Amino acid sequence: EHAAEQHSFEADVSRLLHMMVHSVYSDKDVFLRELISNAADACEKLRYEAISQPGLAADGAPSRILISLDEDKRTLTVEDNGIGMSREELVDALGTIARSGTRAFMERLEAAKANDKAELIGQFGVGFYSSFMVADRVDVVSRPAGQDQAWKWSSDGKGNYTISPVDPADAPARGTRVTLQLMEDAKSYTGKWAVERIIREQSGHVPVPIELVEKAGAEPAKVTDGVALWTKSRSDITKEEYNDFYRGVSGQYDEPLLNVHFRAEGRHEYTALAFVPGSLPFDLFDVERHGRMKLYVKRVFITDDADLLPRYLRFMRGIVDTADLPLNISREMIQESPILAAIRKGVTSRILTALEKQAEGDTENFEKIWELFGAILKEGIYDDFERRTQLLKLARFKTTASGEGHRSLADYVKDMKEGQSAIYYIAGTSLEQLNASPQLEGFRARGIEVLLLTDPVDSFWAPNVQDFEGKSFKSITQGLSDLDKVAGGENKEDRTAKPSDEVNAFVEFARETLKEEVAEVRVSSRLTESAVCLVASEQGPDRQLEKILQGAGR
Ligand code: ADP
Ligand code: MG
């Protein structure tokens, strides 16, 4: 037996560790992701080195990552058959936190504000050290590919580590075994279900298969197969595989209505695989709710909380995988990243383009998508000025002329009456209610189409949109209508005739009687059967928006 040599960490590790444990990662589960991604990296490195030195992987054993749990000993072990580390490499890689410019880094860290600290540490290789969030001792036994001697690195993460040679019989045939002696309050990481869930969630798509040994002596069971579906090309993926993947990523068991799968190259490199669900996710109208797209960096899961899409696409499910961000990126840093902003823009465009294609090519499917998510997409007309026109083109409406189907604004404009200058709409809570409203009478009589808007969001975008193809939007429950200028309708003469003295006398009477209740009483051509109707004034909210605002207690 050799005596273990005593070493000190370079740089003030204990301070850095303390900061990291307490500020960078809010979520302790990430230690496992870090260890798995190191193990996967080691396997990838071996694959690469073996291209020029085939002897390194002479045994021909396929890459794999083995995770073993031992509840009695309270340990979790991550073992790989990758490139391994020599004694020098253990010292360099695990004994030196900052591989270069340590002092400068520590000084910047001292000076940085809390937010930037997370960013600085994120750019910095601290992955392995996250083990010390859950373990009070970490042993790393490693045997480099092509060598006989194995070494053990051991530390409590408080400032010192030891290195000693180990008997080859106690080391992996090749690669690295990292054993965590878990803290008392981290013993849940010896539970099979908990660990399996974390692996699936965070590392389900690392490129090396992961196996789990649930207790000492048990057979390893495969948890993940080591292939990220989205890295394959569209033509190699079956519908069933897409559907399975969708179910995994969305937690829903229906069939998606559409998938958008593409690889972006050029200034930013990323792959996106996004689905339009086949049914309404239950929490869609929760205001607190962000998107559910998962962000991966180099096939390693980072978060599902990054705003990868605008709010009006929050029903989409899927992933974005990029090589352009550092793996240790902190959540705080993600939200501010300009790279992510560029990716978000790119993915949004591709999704809208895919929806446009459906709208043109597969109208039946698009009808389904619109029925489910149209109300959410319409939020974008209000929110996303840049894509307003695009979204207006996508939008489908029930109108006085739509029958069973829907009409687009292009349909509407194409069929506008001679002399008609506006796109007319009426907003309310249901089609029945709207169809019965007296304001529609004059429009019906003249064969003028009116959009029937029944989603709350309609009352917000419609008054705010300048125009569609040069035609303004006009609520028929508001202000004066220019019906008389429009051709068509049966008894046009009557409508334009000057009101008789009796009518004028009645209007005068109504004005006097209702002067506390209404702003104005006037003769209108919008009615054919009803005697009177209420309209809102030209400026300000229309009737439906008035009601919504009153309902909200404003
Ligand atoms: P990073 O992965 O960002 O480089 P880490 O702290 O996670 O930072 O790991 C530090 C270094 O330790 C790695 O770059 C690698 O050289 C080495 N290392 C860690 N785990 C392994 C492993 N399982 N096999 C081989 N090398 C490893
Ligand atoms: Mg790492």
Explain this structure to me?
InterPro entries: HATPase_C_sf (IPR036890), HATPase_dom (IPR003594), Heat_shock_protein_90_CS (IPR019805), HSP90_C (IPR037196), Hsp90_fam (IPR001404), Hsp90_N (IPR020575), Ribosomal_Su5_D2-typ_SF (IPR020568). The chain has 554 residues and is α+β, with helices and mostly antiparallel strands. Helix content is 34%, strand content 19%. It has 19 helices and 19 strands. It has helices at residues 13-24, 30-52, 87-95, 102-111, 114-122, 192-203, 239-250, 331-336, 338-361, 363-377, 379-383, 388-394, 409-414, 431-435, 441-445, 458-461, 492-496, 501-513, 543-551, and strands spanning 5-8, 65-70, 75-80, 135-143, 150-155, 160-166, 175-182, 210-213, 221-224, 258-264, 270-276, 292-297, 300-303, 317-322, 396-399, 407-408, 422-427, 450-453, 472-475. The strands form three sheets. A nine-stranded mixed β-sheet has the order 1-6-5-4-7-3-2-8-9. Strands 10-11-14-12-13 form a five-stranded mixed β-sheet, sandwiched between helices. Strands 16-15-18-17-19 form a five-stranded mixed β-sheet. The chain starts with a strand and ends with a helix. Bound molecules: adenosine-5'-diphosphate (ADP) and magnesium ion. Magnesium ion binds at residues 34, 37-38, 127-128.
